[in-house]
Design the sequence.
């Protein structure tokens, strides 16, 4: 094989390319070229009022706006020293369920599964298996409907504010989603079964997994930053151990640990670290279908996503049943100068924010570390490991397997530029 | 119509992907849409690519790099009809906040090595670089409006898009005016309808995602809003947001500036 070149990666969010440079059939250079233009969000946030922040950070990503809103509100609430009510916290988790459902259904069926089925797109899958695609679209739609019921719309919802929500969503509209949610839970379990029948390329990696961990619930908001190497930090200590760098070939920053290691965030990290906290049917699915942990094959993050799809449908059902709005939907904020950090688990992985605000509530400084920036060095390292396995294959096949590896990460290039083209070239 | 399906290409420029997602989010209509058109290029949805020329190019995002200027010209050259999808493509979007500041300073704030980057000092709408046939505003666009635009194009008619402001959507939903009744700053009177007045309906002011409506009376709006500000420069910041680079909103803020150094 002469070279692997993917000038513009398909079925990912945002724009990037992949280049694998070979010498005597061995990979000597691997680059994820992130040519998604820089968008300067941390700059825009300066001198904006704190309540504008969730509306601005939502615009970092149309696929996971809730994650950007949630990490922001937790960081700003941390800066002000306010503690939200349990009802608000429950509604935040319910809203996050909507985003996980929408984003995971999109990624499993529309972005990654076509690779495993040898198809170019979900539309090509639809020509052969229309019922599967109709199920996929309904699974995804239900997540969007939940987001709409809470946030007014599914992309860039408008109801999230520092201190809570602008207003309580109508309880009747929320409860009306229950029959669809029950259908979705069963369809999600079928998704796990389907996921286990797909042919995954062979690749096992010894990852350092990093995810939020919460003792009482599946880590999404709050908790500690837990690593599979035993390191456990509070969210405010995150920057002591995880560093972002700017590398020449990428408009997205690259993260590493202080001891100079790559690490993995996202569904595999969460599932491997936090499976004890899964909801009952999601946990049962692991046993019932014989899924052994840890899962260390990046392509099998699809299986992790399908387990999470079960979890979040299940959790959504519970939260909807318990939804009883009472008390104020948001706190009256007492402004003061301060600094605060916040992290939540976006569907793609840990998302960290830190803000400094002045006494008037104006942002003086913002730092945002998206999941894809943390995973980029890891994706490049995986490709190094993959190259010997694919180097003797026909070019089109090798390219597809490499591209698929990148896609299995569900990289959000738009998010990370503050990210991909495949090109393998013999030097 | 002939039996040949129209070819459609969907492109992304500088953006969050949210408006492209609005196409994938047409869950109930997506398969019908795929029957009615030939999706020739849509990187977020498919690896398959057919060469142009295309009948319709749907473009998301704004122009923020020298390379994007070249790319948008190529898009124009290969498509009969170009549709600008969303507020990034129609007004520069959130990226255009750099147009009121120093982009180099932003680059220094965000990146360790700004010298590795290629970017323009400004983020601009497609119409500043190429003739655009149709603009659909919204951050994000409303999915129902996307369907209306595509159906209109397939039937060779103009799309039916509301020419009025968010106020009328509030009236239709029975939402009591939060600006008048509660004194909450809202730029709905100056903003195009299309979102369904979702912000006022949940008790917060409109922040202008769908861009300026026609027949805005900016002076009157600004005077009223200035009296209700809850934080320094709120009025200017409301207009200088998602659609801040749209000419009408730009002018409103420029008029405010002498009296309001904060913005």
Sequence:
């Amino acid at each position: 094989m002469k070279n692997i070149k993917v000038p513009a990666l398909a079925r990912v969010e945002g724009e990037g390319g992949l280049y694998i440079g070979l010498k005597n059939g061995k990979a000597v250079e691997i680059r994820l070229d992130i040519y998604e233009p820089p968008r300067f969000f941390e700059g825009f946030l300066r001198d904006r009022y704190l309540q504008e922040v969730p509306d601005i950070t939502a615009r970092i990503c149309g696929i996971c706006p809730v994650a950007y809103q949630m990490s922001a509100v937790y960081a700003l609430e941390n800066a002000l020293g306010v503690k939200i009510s349990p009802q608000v916290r429950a509604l935040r988790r319910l809203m996050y369920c909507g985003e996980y459902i929408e984003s995971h259904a999109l990624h499993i069926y529309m972005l990654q599964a076509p690779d495993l089925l040898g198809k170019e797109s979900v539309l090509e899958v639809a020509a052969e298996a229309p019922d599967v695609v109709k199920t996929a679209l309904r699974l995804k739609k239900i997540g969007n409907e939940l987001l709409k019921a809470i946030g007014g719309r599914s992309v860039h919802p408008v109801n999230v504010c520092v201190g809570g929500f602008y207003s309580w969503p109508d309880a009747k509209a929320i409860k009306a989603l229950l029959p669809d949610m029950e259908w979705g839970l069963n369809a999600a379990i079928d998704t796990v079964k389907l996921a286990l029948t797909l042919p995954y390329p062979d690749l096992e990696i010894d990852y350092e997994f990093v995810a939020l961990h919460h003792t009482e619930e599946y880590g999404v908001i709050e908790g500690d930053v837990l690593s599979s190497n035993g390191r456990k930090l509070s969210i405010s200590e995150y920057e002591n151990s995880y560093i972002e760098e700017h590398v020449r070939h990428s408009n997205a920053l690259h993260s590493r640990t202080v001891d100079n290691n790559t690490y993995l965030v996202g569904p595999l990290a969460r599932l491997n670290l936090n499976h004890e906290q899964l909801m009952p049917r999601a946990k049962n699915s692991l046993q019932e279908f014989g899924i052994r942990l840890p899962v260390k094959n990046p392509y099998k993050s699809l299986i992790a996503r399908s387990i999470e799809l079960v979890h979040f449908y299940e959790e959504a059902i519970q939260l909807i049943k318990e939804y009883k709005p009472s008390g104020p939907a948001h706190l009256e904020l007492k402004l003061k100068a301060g600094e605060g950090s916040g992290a939540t688990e976006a569907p793609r992985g840990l998302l960290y924010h830190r803000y400094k605000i002045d006494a008037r509530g104006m942002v003086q400084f913002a730092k945002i570390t998206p999941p894809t920036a943390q995973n980029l060095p890891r994706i490049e390292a995986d490709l190094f490991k993959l190259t010997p396995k694919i180097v003797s294959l026909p070019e089109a096949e090798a390219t597809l397997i490499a591209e698929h590896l990148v896609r299995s990460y569900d990289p959000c290039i738009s998010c990370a530029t503050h990210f991909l083209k495949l090109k393998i070239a013999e030097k | 119509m002939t039996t040949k399906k129209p070819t459609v290409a969907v492109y992304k420029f500088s953006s969050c992907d949210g408006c492209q997602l609005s196409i994938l989010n047409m869950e109930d209509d997506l398969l019908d849409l795929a029957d009615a058109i030939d999706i020739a290029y849509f990187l977020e949805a498919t690896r398959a690519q057919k060469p142009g020329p295309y009948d319709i190019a749907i473009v998301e995002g704004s122009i923020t790099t020298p390379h994007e200027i070249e790319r948008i010209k190529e898009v124009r050259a290969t498509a009969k009809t170009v549709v600008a999808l969303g507020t990034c493509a129609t007004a520069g979007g959130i990226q255009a906040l750099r147009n009121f500041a120093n982009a180099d300073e932003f680059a220094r704030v965000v990146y360790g090595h700004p010298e590795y980057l290629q970017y323009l000092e400004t983020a601009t709408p497609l119409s500043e670089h190429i003739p655009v046939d149709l603009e659909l505003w919204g951050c994000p666009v409303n999915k129902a409006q996307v369907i209306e635009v595509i159906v209109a194009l397939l039937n060779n008619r103009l799309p039916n898009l509301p020419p009025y402001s968010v106020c009328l959507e509030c009236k239709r939903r029975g939402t009591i005016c939060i600006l008048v009744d509660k004194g909450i700053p809202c730029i709905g009177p100056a903003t195009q309808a299309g979102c369904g007045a979702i912000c006022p309906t949940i008790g917060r002011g409109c922040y202008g995602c769908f861009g300026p409506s026609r027949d805005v009376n900016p002076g009157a709006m600004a005077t009223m809003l200035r009296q209700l500000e809850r934080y320094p420069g709120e009025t200017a910041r409301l207009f200088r947001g998602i659609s801040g680079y749209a000419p009408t909103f730009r002018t409103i803020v420029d008029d405010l500036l002498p009296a309001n150094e904060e913005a």
Q: What stands out?
A: The CA atoms of residues 149 and 159 of chain B lie 5 Å apart.
